[in-house]
Write a structure and sequence with these properties.
Layout: H1 4-11, E1 17-18, H2 19-26, H3 30-43, E2 46-51, E3 61-65, E4 71-77, E5 81-87, E6 93-100, H4 107-124, E7 132-139, E8 143-144, E9 149-150, H5 164-172, E10 175-180, H6 181-193, E11 200-205, E12 209-215, E13 218-220, H7 251-255, H8 257-266, H9 274-282, H10 286-310, E14 314-318, H11 326-339, H12 342-345, E15 349-352, H13 359-372, H14 375-384
Parallel strand pairs: 4-7, 7-10, 11-14, 14-15
Antiparallel strand pairs: 1-3, 2-3, 4-5, 5-6, 8-9, 11-12, 12-13
Helix pairs in contact: 1-3, 1-14, 2-3, 4-5, 6-13, 8-9, 9-10, 10-11
Family: Belongs to the ROK (NagC/XylR) family.
Protein name: ROK family transcriptional regulator
InterPro entries: ATPase_NBD (IPR043129), ROK (IPR000600), ROK_cs (IPR049874), WH-like_DNA-bd_sf (IPR036388), WH_DNA-bd_sf (IPR036390)
Amino acid sequence: MYSAGSLFQLLRDGRPRTRAELAAETGLARSTVTQRVDALLASNLIGPADKAASTGGRPPTRFAFNPNARYVLAADIGATHARLALTDLAAEVLAQSADDLLVAAGPEIVLDWVDRVGHDLIRQAGRDPRDLLGVGIGLPGPVEHSTGRPVSPPIMPGWDGFDVQGYLQDRFGAVALVDNDVNIMALGEHNVAWSDAPHMMFVKVATGIGSGLISDGRLHRGAQGAAGDMGHLQLPHGTDVVCRCGNTGCLEAVASGAAIAAKLAARGIEASTSFDVVALARGGNIEALQLLRQAGRDIGEVLAAAVSLFNPSVIVIGGSLSQAGEHLIAGVREIVYRRSLPLATQDLRIVQSSTGDRAGIIGAAVMVIDHALAPAQVDLLMSAAPAAMS
């Protein structure tokens, strides 16, 4: 039987419905639908919308999802940057802040920034701290999603095993969810641009390289949350290059923004970050453009195997290096279309991210929203603290 939480899922698409329409969709009795709708109205998760057309008498009221009932705090932490935003329950950004911040500075410094800036955003937006639905955060390293703890992250000294989830829950008094940054970017990109593509691969190319997999419309994390960590797959021609993880020949050590910047610096060209590489490419620097094209080919070597194994309908290239133009993506396409199985590539699209630096923020919000507004959670919210949501 449809609980109030289950009935609410029908309204999350944003389309207003009358009680009669909800009864027809669910097969529930009108009296049961009225009871469920009244409970959802009391929770403020839905509200009255426009009046429906009437066949006579008073027109029936339509009800719709109220995305302003609560709000979410979403954080996207990269190797050298941090972004934080408040979003509504449709993952629309209400307020945001960004700063240069080294994840290598350690968990206390980074998470204290989230704590301080997050509370500032809540205060500036005039929102009640009790209306915070949850906190979502993406980190640039392997995360055991079930515990929210990073596991041996190569570029995050001091983070191994740190209880990020507990730290944030203590400071915000709300549920906190943690994932790696590429997984939340995949969620964000899929939510905004590719919701009609059930099989999608998002590849982040920045200081490091990683991927997030959407399978049957859902994020695929694997057994422990390590699925998609393509940056540490070995390239056959890169075995003399030492990676930060301790191995040699990793894709990330050869084709990431940091790797390209190091190659340019070795040639006497001023570059130390992915952003420097992008600026050089946009300025027409031939060596930067050539290295970007080769990086695309190297990434394509790994993706060609992934395409044959996973068979996505779209590969989205994101991260700071994707902003350098078509040279990187052209290199990826060159190898993937040549090396992958014809059946796997006959309808495959390889495109640049349309969400840019918003992908992580949106994805972190979606992660929390999908968890906290699942049927059982909605039922729990309403039964545990109905007054807190009104």
